[in-house]
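Listing S7. Sequence submitted for prediction.
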Amino acid sequence: MSNTIEIKVPDIGDFSDIPVIEVLVAAGDEVNAEDGLVTLESDKATMEVPSPAAGLIKEMKLKLDDTVSEGDVVAILEVSDAEESAEASGSEQSESELPAPESERETEVEKPSEPTDPERSQPPVERTSGVAAVDPGKVPYASPAIRKFARELGVDLARVSGSASKGRITREDVSEFVKSVISGAVGTGAPAIGGLKLDFPSLPDFDFSRYGEIEKKPLTRIQNISASHLHRNWVGIPHVTQFDEADITDMEAFRLANADEAIAQGFKLTPLVFLIKAMVAALKKFPTFNASLDTDGETLILKKYFNVGIAVDTPDGLVVPVLRDCERKGIMELGAELAEISGRAREKKLQPTDIQGGCISISSLGGIGGTGFTPIINAPEVAILGVSRSRMMPVWDGNEFKPRLMLPLSLSYDHRVIDGAVAARFTRFLASRLEDLRRLTL
């Protein structure tokens, strides 16, 4: 049995004579429940009037640029279920089904300072009131139907200029933007990270020779490769850096006592190997640091292996080879492996597999100097440890000041995954293992 109902303009607040800016269906079209029929535009919002039920559009009562008020008939719908149509009819709706006040209607808002990926950030609007509202005071300004059209084409509406009244984006605007991208007139923009669109204005082109003599020197291959990764990681990851110090007086004495044995085996025993062992202990204690954020931005991938990347300074720039299965290796074995892979890095003999699979990285500038720095996280890792030059400092032991060798530590971490308190505990735990090597056996 089929039944014909009138679809009327629902409660739209204290507005009347609202213009119709889009007609989304025509007579003879099949529609589903909640499919948009027309789009209205008031001074405060753009609203889409949906179909209350599935069926066939028998007649459209409105056309483009018509004006409507609450209760005006939008269309005649033929539905197959009389009971459903009776419930959907505007004159017979229960109180719980009446449209919510305009202030409570769900809105789609995109902040101009945070353009986002359309596929992830602009899901179809859930309509509980029968009207979807879009605040025209925000950008981009487009109706739900146009937003859907843009999503289907993969277009970020934040990059489209609207040609209609008040800067509203039309279907033609989206189509013209796509044509411009295809023709090369408009760039595709930078990629997105976790839903964040990295699309910045270009830097101005300066003529530095106007101010004096200059020389142009191309970046090395490694610098060129690293540049985009570093920029992506710095912009796409909310960095916070936790600073601490480790008393490595006893560790340094132990290292020096075993230095000759290491040299006899063909390598130099450096403080880095002790840092690697302490790092493994810290990762076991705080597994969130031994993780990566999945591409959905909502799932944490916890790793059960312990591979540590070590930043190596080469003539062409920094590279980060990875030492694998560090929990299974002793100090001497790690020392020999570190020397071997660092040598290959400086000789440009690293294989692609040598720089893959890291869980966390260590960047040591202790051989050069400095008291602290903010290392950039090596995505998809969630933290990186910076190490600066150790120095003798007077430390109070409760009775007197004694000279102690203190090592500055700088831990940068992804604040989406790691809280500040956890980072502070991680850094202190790491320092405690360096301060007493016996704890590495616990």
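Caption to Listing S7: primary sequence and predicted structure tokens for the chain studied. The longest helix spans residues 221-236. The longest strand covers residues 401-414.
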